Input
Amino acid sequence: MEFNCSSRSIRGGARLGVLGAAIILLFSPVRAWPWGCEGHQAVAMIAEKHMTAHALEMANRLLQSAPIDPALPRYCPSVGLDLMADSSTWADDLRTLRPEASPWHYIDIPRDAPRTALAESCPASTGCVTSAIAHQIELLRSDGTDARVRADALRFIIHFVGDLHQPLHCVTNNDLGGNCVPIDFFGVAPVERNPLTESYAPNLHGIWDTGIILRLKGTETVAQWAASLDQQYSSQEGGWEKQGINVEDWAWEGHELADSVVYAKLPVAIPVEKPVPAKSCADDDHVSTRLLKLHEQVSQQYVDAVAPTINEQITKAGVRLAMVLNQIWP
Output
């Protein structure tokens, strides 16, 4: 197995009930809830289907030995979920407790950058999703490490492999991975949520994390949706497994999909920005305010165009997460 990670950098026609939930999630803070509750849970459920019996037993034993702190406020409901699915969203609940972990959820590769920019997009001072996965794998593999540390490492891995397959976690156009791209989502106009940072919702990152996911899942339970995705891509999963484990390849794959699908399928073309440091949507000459003037309107046409990519990336994340855990526990 080759992890090949650099050092380093979270972002963060449906029925009315689904649309209402989508609107609530779309108004979440900037860089919040990648893949949402349902996306991350589906990744974990697909992974379980591809894990060996031994690897699944070891994962469940570890998670049970050092459970999630019941006092930790949880954003995603855990009722009816098994240990891995419940663990899949835990890393997002830690952000106020462990702010240093926020950059571990993504890697800011400039939109028009060459592959060689991958390493420099993951600064050692902060870390990024690729280096975080590598580090947490080291902790999980260390038998001498405390069970609590190893269980948390497993929870980070479950979450970060999911994050890595959200294309907007592998790109920046000085827009915080699409968080600074205001979107009119099925008639819900973007509203400025924070005048200081000039952040708007709905935005491009938010609809990829939650809005579109909820429309694709529809009335199915997460378990039903995960099983459906696993079946849909069953003929391709063997090929993904044969490609082996290379986290940087996965990151670059997401980066390319961000440009060729996420941005390219939008009704109004968004120019590639010259890379500059951006910590809020007010940076880069008020990037979100400038992009607001494009009047991006996302409807069913865009959802239909990007749905195959979202479905495939979530399924790939599950299969690849299983590959990582099967190798840790052969």
Q: What stands out?
A: The chain has a mean pLDDT of 91. The radius of gyration is 19 Å. Residues 300-328 form the longest helix (29 residues). Residues 16-328 form a domain with the P1 Nuclease fold (CATH 1.10.575.10).
